[in-house]
């Protein structure tokens, strides 16, 4: 544990993405996942300045068809095992995120989460050294 007290999260919280129009996303805290993931229902790769980029279509709100389109430099590609044991090769982006009072860069894999309750999972890499989780509580950092 660090010298400073860690913020406590409930099992679900809100996140804001400053570089994606300050979009707010409802997320589930998932201590079983190493990397965080964000819902993207369409991904189109392209080359920009001789680097790999992707154009991403996101539905930031559950039960809404409102689309947000954003372009990201590809940070990495990773094989990820989902909760059903299926392995997929996912794009990884790096972008700033705000959770409560903390802002930091986060690595996010992108995957289709239309059938899931939450548009984002916050994994262990993002939690480490920043947060503790109270699994009996929700939205401890506010709505």
Automatic annotation (TrEMBL):
Q: Which InterPro entries match?
A: Asp_endopeptidase (IPR008503), Peptidase_aspartic_dom_sf (IPR021109)
Residues covered by the Retropepsin-like aspartic endopeptidase domain: 8-140
Entries under SUPFAM superfamilies matching the protein: Acid proteases (SSF50630)
UniProt protein name = Retropepsin-like aspartic endopeptidase domain-containing protein
Q: Which organism is it from?
A: Shewanella japonica
Instruction: Please spell out the taxonomic lineage of the organism that makes this protein.
Output: Bacteria, Pseudomonadati, Pseudomonadota, Gammaproteobacteria, Alteromonadales
